[in-house]
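hiii, so i know i said id send this last week but things got crazy w the move. better late than never?? heres the sequnce for the chain we talked about at the cafe, plus the structure i predicted for it. fair warning i was half asleep when i ran it
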Amino acid sequence: MHASAPLSFSREHISPGDRLCVAVSGGADSVALLLAIHEANTTTHDSLGVGLSAAHVHHGIREAAESNADLALVQDLCIQLNIPLHIHRADVPARAAQNHETMEEAARETRYAFFRTLLASGHADTILTAHTLDDQAETVLMKLLRGAWTEGLSAIHPVVQVDLPNQRSGKILRPLLATRRSEIESFLRSRDQPWRTDSTNADVAYTRNRIRHELLPQLRSFNPSIDQTLANLAELAREEESRWQAELTRILPQILLPGKPVRGGGRAVSTTSGSSSVSIELERLRTLDPALRRRVLRAAARQLGSRLSYDETNRLLALAGFTILPTVAGRTGASVHLAQGLRALRSAREIRLFLEPVDPAPLS
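okay and structure toks below
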């Protein structure tokens, strides 16, 4: 038992018998989470009663010596705590170049693909990541700067369900979302536990680092509690979005119509690949309040695999005649072209969204 206080973390989605796998980079947050879970699992009072392992991704982004030192620290800690460790080596820069992703996107996709593999293989049924309240605040600001909707402002969710083959599921938990980075470092110092500092964390070429080192310090001069305020905003946005999704699940089957109308009644639904479409009666849209109307249009686009921006949603509203834009004609026969091959066409009674067929690549 340690004389100093344990690190607080959420136990809400953790049950005895769970097989937990903590994602450990070697940084302070993830090292602290592994230690905290291990302590809570080995205490004689109110033990978690879970199976515990760890996972580490060697991204191949930084100098080999630095990355290898991160791995060595994680390996030593797992040996010290007698915790199994799963290691995945990846070439994230190569992936980023191949998929036209930023380094941050490629690293994230690599990590979560590895987590999914661990869940699917049965090595764990829950992955724990060490996102903190500070991470949450930074993420809300990143989303806000990019023009996110409510679902984007919900930022990092405390629990994410992961669908797996054979109708199985796993989950990803973030038990430290209410914990500050300063609390984590104090906890580690009380345990004499070293951690690694990623040299790229100081590189302001990355958006998150600019927000962390430049924007947030300025915002704290206006509101010293801005980190908590932003985390609160994420929670409110998450609850609002959950409420709206329940309403959309109820109402969309009554509003969205497949395909397009045909003469004499009925609807034609094409089975040709790449020609999916969905329609909404204008009269039904008129009965909805503006907030629900926007969400119905965006949900219709999402069914076709497209995410509408604020401006694109406004163009659809103008096409339907609910707002006025100089670039959009709100009359029968008018159409608008949207992102990702999505097109909207207005008839006398409906707005129809459909994916334009992709032209085949020319033969070389």
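btw The longest helix spans residues 226-255. thought thatd interest u
miss u guys!!
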